[in-house]
Structure formats: C-alpha cells, structure tokens
Specification:
mainly alpha
Amino acid sequence: MDADLKALEEKLSGLISLCSDLRSENAQLRLDLNSTQNDAALLKANMAQASERIEALMERLP
C-alpha cells in the first residue's frame, strides 16, 4: 500500500511539474504571438505606405 501511494505521489508530482512547465510555455507563446502580430501590423502599414508612394510616382510618369 505504501508503494502504491508513493508511486501515485510521484506521478502527481510529475503531473504538477508538467502543468507548471506548460503554463510557462503557454505564457511565453502568448507573448511571442503578440509580438509577431505587432510586427505583422507594422509590416502591413509599411507595405501600404510603399504602395501609395509607388502609385504617386506612377501618376507622375508621362
């Protein structure tokens, strides 16, 4: 019986540790996702600005 309880305790300890690791990883992934989304929005704005400049230059061509 003691061996069963010890095995269960070890399994629970491992599960708690895994859960903690996954929470930390999830938090980091959320930060990375937010950063990537911000970068994508900035790139999209830069592309729109470049497109406007090109269109303005094309209008000046004879």
